[in-house]
Design brief:
Keywords: Membrane, Transmembrane, Transmembrane helix. This protein is mostly helical and 85 residues long. The protein has helices spanning 2-11, 19-47, 51-69, 71-83.
Length: 85
């Protein structure tokens, strides 16, 4: 029976995929979607010559991208803020 266990465990590759790769891929996709949306809004505001809209779009897009890429840190800040009450 021990031989059967060794054969079955030995046949499984050591580098099995984990959910970390899927999570990182998902974060990259979300960040790219935010980037595309920001570029669209910048082009729209540029066509209407709204400089304030371009600046605000850059600020909001940067904040959204930072939140997506650093969610654990941001959630820690939110939890610490809630605990102050």
């Amino acid at each position: 029976m021990n031989l059967l266990n060794k054969l079955m465990v030995g046949s499984v590759p050591s580098g099995l995929p984990t959910l970390d790769g899927v999570e990182n891929w998902g974060l990259v996709v979300v960040a790219q979607v935010i980037g595309l949306f920001v570029f669209f809004l910048i082009a729209k505001h540029l066509a209407r010559f709204k400089i304030g809209g371009i600046i605000m779009t850059c600020i909001v897009g940067g904040i959204a991208t930072f939140v997506v890429q650093n969610w654990s840190q941001v959630s820690g800040w939110i939890e610490a803020f809630i605990d102050t009450f």
